Every structure is written in C-alpha cells, then in structure tokens.
Amino acid sequence: MAKRFFYLLLLCLGATAALAQNDSLIYAEGKIFNAATKEPITARITYQSLPYGNRVGTLNNSNYSFPMFDNEKYAIIVEAQGFATAKFMLDPAEANGERKVLKDIELSVGNVGPRHPVGHVMRLDNLIFQVSRSKISEDSFEELDLLVNMMRENPTMVIQLEGHTDYQGNPKDNMKLSQDRVDAVREYLIDKRINKNRIKTKAFGGTQPLSRDDTPEAHRLNRRVEVRILQS
C-alpha cells in the first residue's frame, strides 16, 4: 500500500512540475508583412537558440510561434523571394505579461542583392525519401521542379547538392546514404535535361547536424539535402 502511495505521489509531483514548466514557458510570436503595403507575406522563417544553436526550427508561413526554452535568446531569419532578408535576435527578457515576445517583421522590396548569390545555401524542406533509402517520394517532385526551373532561368548557374543524415547509427552507413540521396536528386535534375556538369554533389553523413537534441524533430531537421550556389 505504501509503495503504491509513493508511486502516485511521484506521478503527482511530475505532473505538477510539467504544468509549472508549461506555465513558465515563453513563446515568440509575430507576423510577416510587406513594409509598403502591409499585406501578409508567406516567408521562410528559420530560428535557432543562442549561442550554440542547440534548438532549431523552420516554418513556412505569414506568421510564427515557437517556444523559447531554458530562458535562451533566439536568432530568427526571415526570407521571401523578392524581399530583403530580415534578421533579428529575440530576448525572453522582453516578454510581456502573457509570457510572449511579440515581434512583427516587415520585409522591404528594393536593394535585395543578387537573387542567388554565390555561397548561398537553400534547404530542400519538402524533399522526402523512403526511410533509410534514397528513393525519392513523389510528394517531393513539386519542390524539385522548382529547383529545375531555377536552373533553367539561370543557365550559367552551378550548384552543389549536399547530403546530410542524422548522427544516429553507423557513420559509414550514414555517409553512404547521404551520398546516395544527393545522387538521386542529381539524377532527377539530369532527367529534366539539366546539364550534369552544372550539378556537383557532396556527402556529409551525420557530421554536420543542425541540432544535437535527441528528439524526433531534431533528427528530422538533421536529415536534409541542401543546395549550395557555386556559380550564379
């Protein structure tokens, strides 16, 4: 009986601690809009904790909301085609009475620099492979066709496809899988009549994770293919 009471007490204490943590959690929230017209803009929003980037995330929307864990500051980058990139640092010390850091972000049209500058890296967020394989899901074709169109519109562009896995499992197997996946993307582009000499590949396996958190979301973020502009 005493053992059962002790177990129930632990459950209650755990639930109380979890509720207390949720009650004290601070959220960053805001909207993205055109500085000139004040209309909402769907943008790519990337955020990561500072200073080490242990927690990262990406959103594609005209607004954002994410938790700021462990009272850490966060860097946020907002990108939308045709607009200048916006970069900010969000500080949990600026939270209001509702425990929210509110930051609406205006994007300006104008001096945005080269559309695809050399060295720029883009992540293919909607690229999906079968689990532990290099076969590309049909759901990925739409995003890959956007890459095809970008290269057709920029006939001198040379890219490097960079493959990453999470850091779990055998490092040698991860390196091979990341190479197989970028090779699969390269073949897709070649099948769409993009010159093979314009497409380089590089495999990193699990050596360059975006996050070291041991969570399904972090592992999903680490499994990615990125496009680096070598020549515009």
Q: Any overview of this molecule?
A:
The chain has four helices and twelve strands; from the N terminus they run αβββββββββαβαβαβ. It is an alpha/beta fold. The N and C termini lie far apart (73 Å). Mean pLDDT is 84; it is low at 15-22. It is found in: Cell outer membrane. Its main location: membrane.
Give a quick rundown of the structure:
It is found in: Cell outer membrane. With about 230 residues, the chain is of the alpha/beta class. The protein has four helices and twelve strands.
Please outline the helices and strands.
Elements: H1 2-24, E1 26-34, E2 43-49, E3 56-61, E4 63-68, E5 74-79, E6 86-90, E7 100-102, E8 105-107, E9 121-123, H2 141-153, E10 158-164, H3 171-191, E11 199-205, H4 216-222, E12 224-231
Parallel strand pairs: 1-7, 1-8, 10-11
Antiparallel strand pairs: 1-4, 2-3, 2-5, 5-6, 9-12, 10-12
What tags apply to this protein structure?
alpha/beta, 12 strands, Immunoglobulin-like, globular, membrane, 232 residues, signal, four-stranded antiparallel β-sheet, four-stranded mixed β-sheet, 30% strand, cell outer membrane, 60s Ribosomal Protein L30, Chain: A
The percent range for helix content is: 25-40%
CATH topology-level name of the largest domain: 60s Ribosomal Protein L30, Chain: A
Summarize the biggest pleated sheet. Answer: 4 strands, mixed
Radius of gyration: 21 Å
Structural class: alpha/beta
Strand content bin: 25-35%
What is the global morphology? globular
Q: Give the CA-CA distance, first to last residue.
A: 73 Å
Number of strands: 12
CATH superfamily grouping of the largest domain: OmpA-like domain
Protein name: OmpA family protein
Subcellular location: Cell outer membrane
GO cellular component, one term: cell outer membrane
Signal peptide: 1-20
